[in-house]
Amino acid sequence: NIKTAKTQNNKQQTKTPHATHTHRHGHGPSIPSLSQSSTNEEKKKKEKKKRKKKDTKRGTKSVPLLALPFHFFVSFSPSLLLVGFVLSCLELRERKMSEDADPNIIVTRPLEDGTQFRYDIMSEEHYESTVECLAKVWVSSNVVTSHLGINLEDFYPYARDIVKTALEQKLSTVAIDKNTEKVVAFHLSHDFRTVPNYEFRKTLDERFQTHIAFLTECMDYYKSLPDVQERKWGDAINGVVAGSYPDYWNRGVMTKTGLWAFWLAKARGYKWHFGLVTALQTQHLLGKRARFDMRLDKKFADFEYKGGRPFAGITNPPSAMIFETELDFQAQAFSYNAKKAKKRAKKRIKALEEGTTVPTAATKLAAKL
């Protein structure tokens, strides 16, 4: 009797693995015990039915798209299983970044570390270099600052105030040239409900007071819009200033700095991004190519200050514009725009090296700096 029982058990042990051999999404076979083989199969069938019912109710799939061929791959090649597993992880990561891009996004430092440039969140170590970059770029290229005759020495205190406010909120991005370890491009932002440093502004001369009065009039109009009035702290971000040295124009540096700023704002939970734009090229970029919404078109000639029109002589561009965008759109378009910018930058760098095309505006400003 003992012998016959052992032989029967041995026969059952050799048969049951083939009868109950199953695969679970690439985790390999699972062999149940002899006493629970039938009950486990019934449980699995019931669980599958429940999952199907839940999935149909939710309207979603519990299994990744690339997990479907796994049942076929597992039984033939372990290498194919590994490839499939990696692809499914990439798919799930991409789906997470596009659908659930919200405050749960993990922001790494630096934001991007390339061969020539490093993109990062502006911090204390970038303070002096960012102030220098902002002052030199703004005095030489901003139409309002140039029209008012503000020189580099006078602009430095104003630049320090802007950078200090941006530094406190950690919503700004910079591009660092790895050869010099200096900031060459910046996108400085703060919450649109930020209260300015009025005490400091009172110390500035009449040229700055004229500039500040123009900025205040534009911002007051924007904040008076019905939909903007409902927004609170943490809803909208103001891109205060953005620019780069002329030597780095047409190389995609400023584009990527701006895109990382959008991505960072989205990661911090912001829903809208806007900015007052006075550069003609940037107005075209945001309005035509990036498809921002224009919320204000303020003619320079129409601005009145103390009974006069101080900006009547500014004709190129004829107006300042406030552009706005939802960060959902910009954050999801991040990778696509970055790839396009990289391709354009390669073409332009090659053309500059060959000497076929040289941007005249960039060389003029480079001479000034």
Which helices and strands, and how do they pair?
Layout (H helix, E strand, L loop, with lengths): L1 H18 L17 H22 L11 H5 L3 H22 L12 E2 L3 E5 L5 H15 L1 H6 L3 H18 L3 E5 L4 E10 L6 H4 L4 H19 L1 H4 L6 E9 L8 H15 L4 E6 L2 H10 L3 E7 L19 E8 H6 L1 H21 L5 H9 L1
Parallel strand pairs: 5-6
Antiparallel strand pairs: 1-2, 2-3, 3-4, 4-5, 6-8, 7-8
Give your account of this protein's structure.
With 369 residues, this protein is α+β, with helices and mostly antiparallel strands. It is built from 15 helices and eight strands. Helix 11 (253-267) packs antiparallel against helix 14 (334-354). It is globular and about 85 Å long. The termini are far apart.
Task: Please report the distance between the alpha carbons of the first and last residues.
Answer: 102 Å
Strand content: 5-15%
Strand order of the largest sheet: 1-2-3-4-5-6-8-7
Low confidence ranges: 1-6, 11-38, 54-103, 358-369
- Number of helices, counting only DSSP H or I runs of 4 residues or more: 15
How confident overall, as mean pLDDT?
74
Order of helices and strands: HHHHEEHHHEEHHHEHEHEEHHH
**DSSP strand count:** 8
Class by alpha and beta content: alpha+beta
Helical content stands at 40-55%
The main pleated sheet reads as: 8 strands, mixed
What is the overall shape? globular
